[in-house]
Records
---
Amino acid sequence: RQLSKYFPIKKGMWGRTVAQVKAVDRVDLQVKQGQTVGLVGESGCGKSTLGRCILRAYEPTSGEIRYRRDDGEVVDLAPLTERQLKPYRQSIRMIFQDPFSSLNPRMTLADIIGEPLRVNGVIPESEIEDRVATLLRRVGLRPEYLRRYPNAFSGGERQRVGLARALSLNPRLVVADEAVSALDVSVRAQILNLMKDLQADEDLTYLFISHDLGMVEYMADEVVVMYVGHVVETGPTADLYRRPNHPYTEALLSAVPNPDPSAARARKRIVLQGEVADPTNVPSGCPFRTRCAYAQEKCRTDVPPLREISPGRRVACHFSEELGLRGIEDLVA
Ligand code: SF4
Ligand code: MG
């Protein structure tokens, strides 16, 4: 709720703060248990920073991270100290983008996957190997692999190892930041399907961060669209893809490749003018106005609030209702 992360830019010998990068600016979003929320936007829009704040890898500048425990109590993780956070660190885990650099090449799979168990002292040392073997099986790898090193494995297999490591502590929420983007297209679907299977088996909840709207359509129940640190639109996936309410969402959807290759169904691509706005100098009024083909005078002066436009659908645009934006099926040439 209203979560912000600002990074100060310092200059000179006294380290005076001369500007702020508003990487995440008063973001509201909700992730329901057992569901997947897709967090989308171009690179630099604040998706990863938001994910890292939720993991408390970054300390938020302001706002709340409300976490509902198994006993029903809601705890704000934002102000907790490292010591107070310890029990929650097991419940919220991350899978990283790059399965090549995120695994220590000098550690065996048994050490890599067993490390969170060891660090958190959740089971006796004598049981760790058995547990790792079980985890390997769960992610579709052979338990005999536990004495091998990451170099022996392909990108897809390494991402399976990353998943096993993330799941070792039985987390409730997994933050997946571009988790399959570095993999070959042919391997991606396998890992996405594995993530779905694991979700169904263990009632896992995912925050699925990606710039790829095709993958998000496949994975997510709900979508949150970010632009320079702001949430500009949210809604149930199928509904949002069919009927976007924000011009930025429309443009992102227009860039999704059409699976039907016939020329008649080629997607009509909307090319945005200019560059992503500078997060140290976000435009007045609507942050998207410098790139919006529909911008009017009001967009320069008034910040559009994130408002509920229909049940379950929120948008931050003054003129949504009047724009007649096209959805994924209508964006054909
Ligand atoms: Fe475009 Fe104005 Fe809507 Fe912003 S508020 S998205 S500038 S029409
Ligand atoms: Mg990122």
Note: Residues 3-91+171-323 form a domain with the Rossmann fold fold (CATH 3.40.50.300).
---
Amino acid sequence: MNESEKLFEKAKTLIPGGVNSPVRAFRAVGGSPLFIKSAKGPYIYDEDGRQYIELINSWGPMILGHAFEPVEKAVRDAIQYSFSFGAPTRKEVEMAELITQMVPSVEKVRMVNSGTEATMAAIRVARGFTGRDKIIKFEGCYHGHGDSFLIAAGSGAMTMGVPDSPGVTKATAADTLTAPYNDLAAVEVLLANNQNQIAAIILEPVVGNMGCVLPEPGFLEGIRTLCDKNGVLLIFDEVMTGFRLAKGGAQERFNIVPDLTTMGKIIGGGMPVGAYGGRAEIMNIVSPAGPVYQAGTLSGNPIAMSAGLAMLHYLNEHPDVYSRLEEVGNKLTDGFRSALLKTGLNYTINHVGSMFTLFMTERPVTNFSEAKSCDLPLFGRYFHAMLNRGVYLAPSQFESLFLSTALTDELVEQIIQANEESLTEAIT
Ligand code: PLP
């Protein structure tokens, strides 16, 4: 047994499933997870001293590579002043100002500690603001582990939600309606059948959580129009896409203005940070300005704010980051496409900017049921073949990969080569 395997065996006796977040356990691909000791730039190192090229980047935050110097320095500088005050700080004001500049639809913002907290708070605010109880989400979109979001689709868009996890009550599930992603007609039906009852529509403007799935032309515009017509708030969950698909997130890239936005991942530079914000008129109902309660002992933590601020400042002041990410994304996906041609496989690649997924299916993937048509055992073999060649992918078909600016052209070529060899190995 290697060190990772030994640690996993012990972890399983102490932590449910051996991990502190389920997908880390490698259940979807088989085998034993790597236990990570350190990471720098484009590389991650496991407890056995092996080096891997990073295509997960902590599920998104490490957009500039690991231990990026300005972020590391900001944290070092901050820790000398103590780690938490539970009182307002200058850095929180700077953070709020920077976020509102980078994401103009956000006029006021509240910091929290995770994406889950951000989405939970956002729907509470939407409910408080509209005086309505129900929300609409899309099948295959993940908004963290708040009860209201752990809802399966039932049998089609007309169906009331049913709990996806034991512990979520039927009453909670009944307030979450679901529709297939990219299906405007299904949303129209839900709105028509629940008039004056829907507080918000929440979606990932580009989905990362069923693999990378793009909004079809007109989908986001159509949702915006339906929200306006029906007095429903539009919540963009930009926990993955925020500060990644553009400085101002997917809303800038697709030119759609949501009412509320949830953020996470990059905003903390790798520290546990989330945020939600939107029009001042809506955010003014949040406590203590208004009656909708939301709080947090460690919210706006000074160390986390320092890391996040250093990250966002860098992104705000270096637009070349985004052109480089486009370039890396295009090079990699071009290379992956030519490997598919060479190996005679007609699989689907969905790609936008620095997010992409190679789906092991010949169908186009525009929603969750299409994503589920993938050959999952094949993905598992491909994943391990890539790992053996030193490339660390997300351990599930239903995830997006996240690129960083630490990837050099040489590393891109290495990944392309590993991909071609791994595909060939996986199909034979
Ligand atoms: N929303 C989206 C779109 C996410 O991708 C995630 C996590 O991956 C979350 C919310 C939840 O964020 P967290 O894991 O920080 O609670």
Note: Residues 59, 114-116, 119, 142-144, 204, 208-209, 237, 239-240, 264, 274 surround pyridoxal-5'-phosphate (CB under 6 Å).
